[in-house]
Amino acid sequence: AGLATRQFQRSFGPMGVQPSRVAGVDLNLNEFNLSAPTRSERSAQIVSGIDISGAFWRNLAEEDSMLSKEDRGLLQNVFNPSLCDRREEGDLFMPPDTSFAYVQSLRQLVKEEEAVRKDRTQEFCAVGFDHEAPGLLFPTSWRSSVKVSREEAAGRKGRLLQPRPDYKAQAGLFEPALQDASPVFDKSTEDRTRFRIYRIGSLEVRTVQELGEQEAIAAVFTLRAQAESRPAKAVGEQERVVKATEYVEASCYGPRCYTVLETELRSFVVAEVTPQGAKFEENPKDLEDRNSLAKVLDAKECGQMGRTVGAVRRFKGNIFGFVTGQK
């Protein structure tokens, strides 16, 4: 249970009853108002044997409630059925104390819980988040009990995580890939918020799923070796194409094809037809990321054809067929 729920349960005991408060009669839910508490320390009083639990839970569930919107929201947070078992108390259930001090403490605890949730998501989306040692904001059970080898630790230090907010804005492109992928990290907090990390090719995708909500992409990173962050070299016109790979990817305009040409000097040229005409990119830095989200249609070794980068640029037509000899 959350902080507010645990505080409430401690205040009312395991069955939600404080004997010293059971005295007298007051069943008017119209007067059950938390939005304007007074400093009077008078508690709600219930006649022994009278069950008001049904009316209380209905007012929490129904839109047409006697409670104000603010009060209803507060109580729904405190009595979240997925985190709280108070409904099982039946006719032994007692509503919360409506005294000023107690209501204010409930509001403060709920605010603190919300702040912790936001801080956790922010920390989870940070470049420096380490799922082996997630920090004090997360449950201690998340910490790995397995020691990481020196080789693995060195490998991690040799890689750079680069945020890709542009990919996060295109979350729909990741849906097919995430459905087929298994998370490398999958943990939940005590309020059942689920945090996952996926590795899709050179991409790291982090998602957050709150209780009762859909899984949502929270951050996307490119995972690169430090050497890959250097500026790419230009591709010579006379470099011979030795391999061609044709890809198809999802886009806002529907499926889109592009061809990746590899040269004898290990350079890469991306060729595709756009509404504005033919487009060529030399050694694009996000090529591996793009390929991670695409599917391979065909791939051929084509060094024997002798096609050069310059010849490809001048050709008008099916580039994959031109460099591989396929019709």
| Class from helix and strand fractions | alpha+beta
What is the number of strand segments?
A: 10
The best one-word shape is elongated
The end-to-end distance, rounded to whole angstroms, is 65 Å
Fraction in helix: 25-40%
Helix-strand string: HHHHHEHHEEEEEEEEHEHH
What is the averaged pLDDT score?
A: 78
The major pleated sheet works out as: 5 strands, antiparallel
Strand content: 15-25%
Tell me the number of helical segments per DSSP (H or I, 4 or more residues long): 10
Q: What's the assembly state of these chains?
A: single chain
Low-confidence spans: pLDDT under 50, at least 5 residues? 1-27, 40-48, 148-155
Can you list the strand order of the major beta sheet? 1-5-4-3-2
Cα-atom radius of gyration: 30 Å
Can you walk through the features of this model?
- With 327 residues, the chain is α+β, with helices and mostly antiparallel strands.
- Among the domains are: 127-142 and 160-224, no CATH class; 241-324, no CATH class.
- The chain contains ten helices and ten strands.
- The protein has helices at residues 3-12, 53-61, 69-78, 100-124, 150-157, 165-168, 175-180, 287-293, 309-314, 319-324, and strands spanning 159-163, 185-188, 194-200, 203-209, 216-225, 241-249, 256-263, 268-274, 277-282, 295-301.
- A five-stranded antiparallel β-sheet has the order 1-5-4-3-2. It has a five-stranded antiparallel β-sheet with strand order 9-8-7-6-10.
- Strand 6 (241-249) and strand 7 (256-263) form a beta hairpin.
- The protein starts with a helix and ends with a helix.
